[in-house]
Design goal:
This protein has 119 residues and is mostly helical. Helix 1 runs antiparallel to helix 2.
Length: 119
């Protein structure tokens, strides 16, 4: 048999190799279990980025649609004033008010006063 001190060294070396193998198995299992979370996290990051872009587009579209709706209301008021005036020849105050509202709307949209008065 091996001397007692040599047998103790072999036993310690065997224990170290066994612990090393167990640690390798544990680390491999941990990484394997963690892998789906990493893939899911990447997928969620992409979805959140896409959602942010869509929210920005929706916000811009909402602003644009609100401006269109405001323009439609102004145009419809002007049209009603014209119809009222055409029907009875009166309502010049309504026409002036509709003109002013339409002019202010166009000025807010960036149409110059020279363009408004020329047309």
């Amino acid at each position: 048999m091996l001397p007692e001190s040599l047998q103790m060294i072999v036993t310690c070396a065997s224990a170290i190799v066994t612990l090393s193998a167990a640690a390798t198995v544990f680390i491999t299992m941990y990484r394997g279990a963690k892998k789906p979370n990493e893939i899911q996290d990447q997928r969620l990051d992409k979805l959140e980025e896409r959602m942010q872009k869509l929210e920005e587009r929706i916000s811009a579209d909402n602003i644009r649609l609100n401006a269109i709706e405001r323009g439609n209301r102004v145009t419809q008021r002007a049209l009603l004033a014209l119809l009222s005036h055409e029907i009875d020849g009166n309502h010049t105050e309504g026409l002036k008010s509709a003109r002013d509202e339409l002019q202010n709307y166009l000025l807010d949209r960036g149409v110059t006063t020279e363009y408004i008065h020329a047309h």
